[in-house]
Write a structure and sequence with these properties.
heterodimer; A: alpha+beta; six-stranded mixed beta sheet; 8 helices; about 35% strand; B: mainly alpha; MetI-like fold; 11 helices; globular
């Protein structure tokens, strides 16, 4: 297990910048997720880390050693591919043992470590099975077992749960999480699924158009998104567009057309007085409040314990609220409000890439 | 309903047209007479006895097997290597080398024969095993390149990346991942190569000599002198070997 540092790593394919110069550090034993839509550069960064792609500039340093020009086979990394890339002509045991056989370990040592990792991944007794006899979830576990059995310096995973159905995906998320808790490995995980990122990661790097736009814990990013793109990508959000009126001491006020009073909230970085910006209100913070703004209750979506309600303000703005069902029961016109502490004023994400 | 009956009848007719002349050679080989006549009036295995007792036949059969075996071996190694190279190259090089390797197959056999004959004369190789093997290889190689190429197209590149990530060097990746997965293509190519060499006659007529002669050349020579059932025996032997090769490839590809 080692600390990974990306220093000024970039990648261009001809005129296309897949990855702008990026600095990123994964401390030893940390689970870092690259989260972003397709084309955001997250898989490019992962492949550069694995050595499958050479960066156009910059260095990859693992445990203090510059490995930028090392071929993949000398990097000691465990990779879990999107569709697993298991060797179809080998059994489960042979797949898992592959990296150990390459390392010329003794037969006994290989057998011992394969048995151990199969137990860890709940594949005990599957060693002799052919790959095609396994379910998707089992294949996913074999891929994970094959990657961790070599005791890699870094574990790399490229959307490893994409092919699983929702229920199974949740189970495997928790399995991977508890495996990581039991024995923390430096892990670089790529996904476009925000929930997956929140459940599994120590830290999340949100990527967009070849750049890391925000880096932090799941809570940091959810509660204090850097801009409207991050706010939209992670979690549900109500965004009210307006103009920044004042900006001081990490707080800002925003004039929103149709609102008689300006909105106050935490100021994200990159705001300028007089410039366009948006106020973020998470649905769970929009609640009924006597003496608040008048709103008409529209669509109701039943979510089990909670209910999502579409509220239309007199100004014409629409807000979604997600609260306990009792809060909105049986009323068509309500008065609503929110705590100023729940409001963030965010710069609009620039559209250019 | 009538349409279906008509269709079946038509299919049967086409099948008969294609297969019957080939099958007719088999009873001809069991004739007791000294000339081929269908059906034979009396039956015997005397011509089979002649075929295997007469050194001039036995030697050509062995020569054919030897040429085919050598041709197949060279084609497998060179053809697989070529297919790997083509699979790795860019689209333009790919198109060029594919055309290059398919050249001998689309060139009229007689043109190729004349060309190779003049080369063999210039190098003093006419009538040698080397000349026959090299000539047959030009025809057999494309089948290996083509078959292995199809297998390589179906090979998931990420398996190779996965193996490299697990620490394997290029040769180990080839031995443990690539080769086992393209094996059906190699076997298919080998069978095609063997059969191509075994029944090749045009190039062989030009390049064979009094000491080195393949079975098809011997049959062709015999048929010009005497139309005896031993020719049918030789043809039947070739038919059996071709069927055998086809069955081998089916059994192996099913695995």
């Amino acid at each position: 297990m080692s600390t990974v540092q990306f220093a000024g790593i970039s990648k261009s394919f001809g005129p296309v910048h897949a990855l702008h110069p990026t600095d990123l550090e994964i401390p030893q034993g940390q689970f870092l997720t690259l989260l972003g839509p397709s084309g955001s550069g997250k898989t490019t960064l992962l492949n550069i880390c694995a050595g499958y792609l050479a960066p156009s500039a910059g260095r990859v340093v693992v445990g203090g050693r510059d490995i930028t020009s090392l071929p993949p086979r000398q990097r000691n990394m465990g990779m879990v591919f999107q569709n697993y890339a298991l060797f179809p002509h080998m059994t489960v045991g042979e797949n898992v043992a592959y990296g150990l056989t390459v390392r010329k370990l003794s037969r006994d040592e290989i057998a011992r470590r394969v048995a151990e990792v199969l137990r860890m991944t709940q594949l005990e007794g599957y060693g002799e099975r052919a790959i095609r006899e396994l379910s998707g979830g089992q294949q996913q576990r074999v891929a994970l077992a094959r990657a961790i059995v070599i005791q890699p310096d870094i574990l790399l995973m490229d959307e490893p749960l994409g092919a699983l159905d929702r229920q199974l995906r949740k189970e495997v998320q928790f399995e991977i999480r508890s495996l990581h808790k039991a024995r923390p490995r430096t892990t670089l995980y790529v996904t476009h699924d925000q929930e997956e990122a929140l459940v599994m990661s120590d830290r999340i790097a949100v990527m967009r158009a070849g750049r890391v736009v925000q880096l932090g814990s799941g809570a940091d990013i959810y509660e204090q998104p850097a801009d409207t793109f991050v706010a939209r990508f992670l979690g549900e959000s109500n965004l009210l567009e307006g103009t920044v009126r004042t900006l001081a001491d990490g707080r800002a006020t925003l004039d929103v057309p149709g609102f008689s009073r300006s909105l106050e909230g935490r100021a994200a970085g990159g705001l300028r007085a007089g410039a366009k910006a948006s106020a973020l209100l998470r649905p769970e913070s929009v609640r009924a409040q006597t003496g608040g703004l008048q709103a008409r209750v529209g669509e109701r979506v039943y979510l089990g314990e909670l209910i999502a309600v579409k509220l239309t303000l007199d100004s014409g703005h629409e807000l979604w609220s997600r609260r306990h069902a009792a809060e909105w029961s049986g009323r068509d016109v309500v008065e609503i409000g929110w705590d100023a502490s729940a409001v963030s004023i965010l710069p609009d994400a620039s559209v250019q890439s | 309903m009538t349409g279906r009956v008509l269709l079946n009848a038509f299919v049967a007719l086409v099948a008969a047209f294609l297969v019957l002349p080939i099958l007719a050679i088999v009873p001809a080989a069991f004739s007791a007479q000294s000339f081929i006549r269908l059906p034979p009036d009396t039956w015997s295995v005397r011509w089979w006895h002649t075929f295997f007792a007469d050194a001039s036949w036995r030697v050509t059969l062995l020569a054919s097997l030897e040429v085919a075996a050598l041709t197949t071996s060279i084609s497998i190694v060179a053809g697989t290597a070529a297919a790997l190279g083509i699979a790795r190259s860019g689209p333009r090089a790919r198109a060029f080398f594919t055309a290059l390797f398919l050249g001998p197959v689309v060139t009229p056999a007689i043109v190729l024969a004349v060309a190779l004959y003049s080369m063999a004369r210039a190098t003093g190789l006419v009538g040698t095993m080397t000349a026959l093997v090299l000539a047959h290889t030009t025809l057999a190689l494309p089948f290996v390149v083509l078959n292995v190429g199809v297998s390589l197209d179906g090979l998931d590149r990420r398996l190779l990346l996965a193996a490299a990530g697990l620490g394997a060097d290029d040769f180990r990746i080839f031995r443990t991942v690539t080769l086992p997965l393209i094996a059906p293509g190699v076997v298919g190519g080998a069978v095609f190569a063997f059969v191509t060499s075994f029944d090749e006659v045009v190039l062989s007529i030009f390049l064979a000599g009094p000491t080195v002669k393949t079975l098809p050349v011997r049959i062709w020579e015999e048929i010009r002198l005497a139309y005896t059932p031993v020719v049918a025996v030789g043809a039947t032997v070739m038919l059996l070997l071709a069927l055998g090769a086809a069955s081998v490839s089916r059994v192996l590809s099913r695995k």
